[in-house]
């Protein structure tokens, strides 16, 4: 909010995925007088919801998300509990940094054998180089320690919300669950392809979806 105020915007829309989706949710929930609406790729539902009434596809989503956190999220547990331990490696070794980040591109993309099926090597190297030159590998890891589980279970988002769930993303929330937090979903999309990095994996669809999502958000104010 402080940044947008400095830029001269008293009202705005917000978009995000991953941590950006978390931040976008908080903005929409806490500052409805300023946030016209949100578009998010991440819709964390309140805890403790039942799977009763979910479709087969939605149940599969919950199972895949549970499997991810139980068996594929060691990186998050490391960064949430001992961020500085891995942090030194991430700012000391470019190969170590590349391995740590490339692992996520490989695991979280909608591909069969290699992230390079959809994401160019140059894009991956650009991403890793940005972390390396700015020496932000360690500080990026610390957000897990400082903000893990920080989304208030009681937070509700009443502003218009557009939500997109990509099929190979690491966390997918069924719409009935998402509606428990996001009270005014004006657009819901479930594309057939795409993982955790849609802007790199399916850029044409990503841009179109973002435009249509925010158009639906703004239309809700007319």
UniProtKB/TrEMBL annotation:
<comment type="similarity">
    <text>Belongs to the peptidase S33 family.</text>
</comment>
<dbReference type="GO" id="GO:0004301">
    <property type="term" value="F:epoxide hydrolase activity"/>
</dbReference>
<keyword id="KW-0378">Hydrolase</keyword>
<protein>
    <submittedName>
        <fullName>Putative epoxide hydrolase</fullName>
    </submittedName>
</protein>
<dbReference type="GO" id="GO:0097176">
    <property type="term" value="P:epoxide metabolic process"/>
</dbReference>
<dbReference type="InterPro" id="IPR029058">
    <property type="entry name" value="AB_hydrolase_fold"/>
</dbReference>
